[in-house]
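Researcher: I'm preparing a figure for a lab meeting and need a structural model of a single chain. I don't have an experimental structure, so a prediction will have to do for now. The sequence is pasted below. Please return the structure as tokens so I can convert it later.
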Amino acid sequence: MWPHYCRVALLLTCSWLTFDGLSHSASARPQALVCVEHVWCDIAQQIGGNALHTTVLITASGLDPHHLRPTPSLARTLSQADAVLLNGATYDDWALSLIPQNVHLFNMAQQEGNWRPGDDPHLFFDPKIVRHAAFNIAQWLITKDPDHATEIKGRLDQFTEQTQKILIRLDHLKAHFQGTTIAITEPAGERLLSYAGLTIVDRPWALAVMNENGISARDTASLEENITQHKIRFLLVNPTVMAPEVETIKTLANAHHIPTIELGENLPTGQSWQGWMNHTLDDIEHALNRTALTP
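Model: Understood. Here is the structure written out token by token.
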């Protein structure tokens, strides 16, 4: 059986051949795509190239999409798009009511169909979801601009290959560290950690931080014990979450020489999605290779 990424490329080729018989427009304008988060627009732009113009609604680093209040300006930008790409999963659902029916919608949570309340909403940390999104964007673009089908398909093939390399790295980590216990201050990155086979010891605590619905003393005590007794290999910290409880846990981890890795929700300036993922995996590998559990 062919690898999944090969089947994706073959499927897109078939779609491209279907579109090849359509009448072409030599002067097709770039399609306008609006994303709430920069990371999704980065992925789309890599696929679309000159056939796509992207606009990001959240441009300030550290701004949580959950807390964004829509403005008339944001509503106008959404209404003027050819397509809108949302993470969904309650992450940026406020934008749904602002999107006209004639605007094409990419909703990543609906695309996958298996997201449930309580699941990690940061879908851009899931390489398979990202790969599926890239394929759907390419298909849509080819229907709109068949003259550039070959270029779009070529960029998709390149992106798919790079995504597969990330999945291979995750499989390698899983083979060596499956079941290794770590902690997180908020679920950002949870999907990536799951692919690596790592076990999160404080998921209820991290979910309570994300949802701002009250952290139980029992969960806090359990996390503190895991840190002081060196039962975790590292602490993954979302730097955009500013809460006293998180600062206390970070201080405790530093006092007990538990490595901390920062992983936020915003694509770092100057990085692509795959560069961000690979840099994060570098940090995780380094932390796992230089720490050992105390008997």
